[in-house]
Design goal:
The protein is α/β, with parallel strands linked by helices and 566 residues long. The chain has three domains: 123 residues, Aconitase, Domain 2 (3-Layer(aba) Sandwich), CATH 3.40.1060; 154 residues, Aconitase, domain 3 (2-Layer Sandwich), CATH 3.30.499.10; 197 residues, Aconitase, domain 4. Helix content is 25%, strand content 18%. The chain has 17 helices and 22 strands. The strands form six sheets. A seven-stranded mixed barrel has the order 14-17-18-19-22-21-20. Strand 7, helix 7 and strand 8 form a beta-alpha-beta unit. Helix 3 packs antiparallel against helix 4, helix 7 packs across helix 9 and helix 7 runs parallel beside helix 10. The radius of gyration is 25 Å and the shape is globular. The model has no long low-confidence stretch (mean pLDDT 95).
């Protein structure tokens, strides 16, 4: 679209061989939750996850979508299933028969070659086998999507680790899990509870993923079912999943448990409270949790007490992959743009805090980065949610200056006991936000350096996590390792992303150090960069690597990819 070549590191291949067929409480969500636990949030970095085997064709198209959506939680470059009949059915019912014909005409290109299926060990760098028939429903969390265990083992673990078992909220839906199959199976669980005279014992929130899903849910009675259970149906838009949720009973500093069918559960992700313990499960399991309000409940093996006092067991959820009546039509959100927009002007009131015209970032001046102060040395997990928290800040997404005040508010600073706070090393003033410190440096024409831990920038590809540091004059980020998408986003904004050649050098960086990145005039692909750490006791040189291509180096020199494009 931009007329530029698209570059990505040549990925390795993880082959996930699926056999058997999902049954009972197990769902497509459990495939990816299990994989997150097995491979971890770093396990898919610079790798493609390719699913194959007879079990793959038994999973619905939307189920495949859920699995691939959460491939990002593995750090994967992308995830892919071979083209099959399930996809044909979905394309046809969603008014895309033309795409079906095109895909069927090129079917051989949309699946692995026969020899790959016959001898996968010759073609994949790593193979994982999952027997869908034996897969148990899983729950992951808190605070990370790779802390996984079967539902049956969570009660004991909660007791051992002190997780609060009283659930404050159960949430289903979102872009990840609001397909017709998800909702119909969840509604089946809810209907069983209603038949037994039960209501949800905790706050139960339902987020439809689209206008089409919302109107189909309403037509087929699912909305009414959830509301009878005591649920609240939210707008079909980004909500608690991305932090647009002020939890009424949430108290900062208090650890509560919530469970959702969303794709991310980093601290503060949903309700803006970093202490909240957020767990992820399938929509049907989350609905069962809503009915009991108990994190230790195992819907597969335990019984529930009905309104009459009798114990009964929830039957495994049943639902339809696609609506028999087709999808209902809702409000169409697409507006045809003007054929020629060259004469249109975007007028923004100068007092607006919601919108701001972007100004080009300054070009690199051709000089080395000399004795720049350390802005922050992040410790432990540093996701894009830590770097650019969501929640109430999202209203400023169109105003770079305003939203940059949230920069690093959730990050743990190695030199501060309070997240998001640090010291202005030029003045000695402590307990300032990172944005306040960076703005003070920028006002004096000084850039800064950020140092990060392992897998820095994991999570959603939140561009403000790169744009805000660039806007506030961060010149380089040096880490033990990067999450792939965030590393690329830094490159696009003109920030130099470096990794310690020896990860132990991370430990050498201290709060009052100054850092120089030298010989930038000779920056070239594959060539290490020297970083000089200026200490009161003398200078220390460390080597840092980068993954910048020739094209990406032009972005750095131009000040950003947009500058280079213009």
């Amino acid at each position: 679209m931009a007329g530029l070549p698209w570059e990505v590191l040549h990925p390795k291949l993880i082959g996930v061989k699926l056999t058997g067929k999902l049954s009972g409480w197990a769902s497509p969500k459990d495939v990816i939750l299990y994989l997150c636990g097995l491979l971890t949030v770093k396990g898919g970095t610079n790798k493609i996850v390719e699913y194959f085997g007879p079990g793959a064709e038994t999973i619905s198209a939307t189920g495949k979508g859920t699995i691939c959506n959460m491939g990002a939680e593995l750090g994967a470059t992308t995830s892919v299933f071979p083209f099959d009949q399930k996809m044909v059915d979905y394309l046809n019912i969603t008014d895309r028969a033309d795409w079906t014909k095109l895909a069927q005409a090129n079917e051989a290109l949309l699946m692995a070659d026969p020899e790959v299926t016959q001898s996968p060990e010759k073609y994949y760098d790593q193979i994982v086998e999952i027997d869908l028939s034996k897969l148990e429903p899983h729950v992951v969390g808190p605070h990370t999507p790779d802390l996984a265990r079967p539902v049956s083992k969570l009660k004991a673990e909660a007791k051992e680790k002190g997780y609060p078992v009283e659930l404050k909220a159960a949430l289903i839906g979102s872009c990840t899990n609001s397909s017709y199959e998800d909702i119909s199976r969840s509604a089946h669980v809810a209907q069983q509870a209603l038949k037994a005279g039960l209501k949800a014992k905790t706050s139960f929130l339902v987020s439809p993923g689209s206008e089409r899903i919302y109107h189909t849910m309403k037509r087929d009675g699912f909305l009414d079912t959830f509301e009878q259970l005591g649920g609240t149906v939210l707008s079909n838009s980004c909500g608690p999943c991305i932090g647009q949720w002020k939890r009424a009973d949430g108290v900062k500093g208090k650890a509560d448990s919530i469970v959702s069918s969303f794709n991310r559960n980093f601290p503060g992700r949903n309700d803006g409270i970093s202490e909240t313990l957020s767990f992820l499960a399938s929509p049907e399991v989350v609905t069962a949790y809503a009915i009991t309000g108990d994190l230790g409940f195992d819907p597969v093996n335990q019984t529930v007490k009905g309104a009459d006092g009798k114990e009964f067991k929830l039957q495994p959820p049943v639902g339809e992959e696609l609506p028999a009546k087709g999808f209902a039509k809702g409000e169409e959100g697409y507006v045809e743009p003007a054929a020629d927009g060259s004469s249109l002007n975007v007028e923004i009131p100068p007092t607006s805090e919601r919108l701001q015209l972007l100004q080009p970032f300054p070009r690199w001046d051709g000089k080395d980065f000399e004795k720049l102060p350390l802005l922050i040395k992040t410790k432990g997990k540093t996701t894009t949610d830590h770097i650019s928290p969501a929640g109430p800040w999202l209203k400023f997404r169109g105003h770079l200056d305003k939203i940059s005040d949230n920069m690093f508010l959730g990050a743990n600073n190695a030199f501060s006991s309070e997240p998001g706070k640090g010291t202005n090393v030029l003045t000695g003033e402590a307990n300032l936000t990172m944005a306040q410190i960076a703005r003070a440096y920028k006002a004096k024409g000084i850039g800064s350096i950020v140092v990060g831990d392992e897998n820095y920038g994991e999570g959603s590809s939140r561009e403000h996590a790169a744009m805000s540091p660039r806007f506030l004059n961060v010149r380089a980020v040096i880490t033990k390792s990067f999450a792939r998408i965030h590393e690329t986003n830094l490159k696009k904004q003109g920030i130099l992303p470096l990794t310690f050649a020896d990860p132990k050098d991370y430990d050498k960086i201290e709060m009052n150090d100054r850092l120089s990145v030298v010989d930038l005039a000779n920056l070239s692909p594959g060539k290490p960069v020297t970083v000089v750490v200026h200490k009161a006791s003398g200078d220390v040189k460390v080597q840092a690597n980068h993954s910048m291509t020739v094209q990406q180096i032009t972005w750095f020199k131009a000040g950003s990819a947009l500058n280079a494009l213009n």
